[in-house]
Amino acid sequence: MSTPTTGRPLAVVTGASSGIGYELAAQFTEHGYDVVVAAEDSSIATAARTCAHMADTRVGQGKKDDPRKVAEDAFEALMKGEHKVSAGSFVNKLQTAAGKVVPDRLKAEQHRKMAEPGSGG
């Protein structure tokens, strides 16, 4: 049995049913790729119910970057061969830069406060 080919590059994107995964899949298709997508939504919902009560935390309730912008930044970095990217808003890029100089124990304490159940108000 032979496999048909389109002659286009192929990308596999997991978690592509929504958010950044969905937008990353869209970036690939917009740039001429054939895309295989996968997601396990029921597993995600189960994990959210059983786990890191995130809906009532500052992290869970806080403003999120636009998934399309994050996916665009990630796609561009990938195409340039970059191994790391600080994607999204200026605030995220600033936090990434600060994370390189702030001691790990201070970052961990700040994250604990933001991810603590009930911290969302």
Short description:
The protein is mainly alpha-helical.
Discrete helix count: 6
Adjacency order of strands in the biggest sheet: 1-2
The portion of residues forming beta strands comes to 5-15%
User: In terms of structural class, how would the helical and strand content be classed?
Assistant: mainly alpha
Q: How would a textbook summarize the main sheet?
A: 2 strands, parallel
Number of strands: 2
Low-confidence stretches: none
* Percent of residues in helices: 40-55%
Average predicted confidence as pLDDT = 84
**Gyration radius from CA atoms, angstroms:** 18 Å
Alpha-carbon distance between the two ends: 59 Å
Coarse morphology: globular
What is the H/E order?
A: EHEHHHHH
Describe the protein in words.
The protein is mainly alpha-helical. The protein has helices at residues 19-30, 41-50, 58-61, 67-79, 90-99, 104-115, and strands spanning 10-14, 34-38. It is built from 6 helices and 2 strands. The protein has a two-stranded parallel ribbon with strand order 1-2. α1 (19-30) links the parallel β1 (10-14) and β2. α1 packs across α4. The longest helix is centred in the middle third of the chain and has 13 residues, at 67-79. The termini are far apart. 11% of the residues are buried. The mean pLDDT is 84.
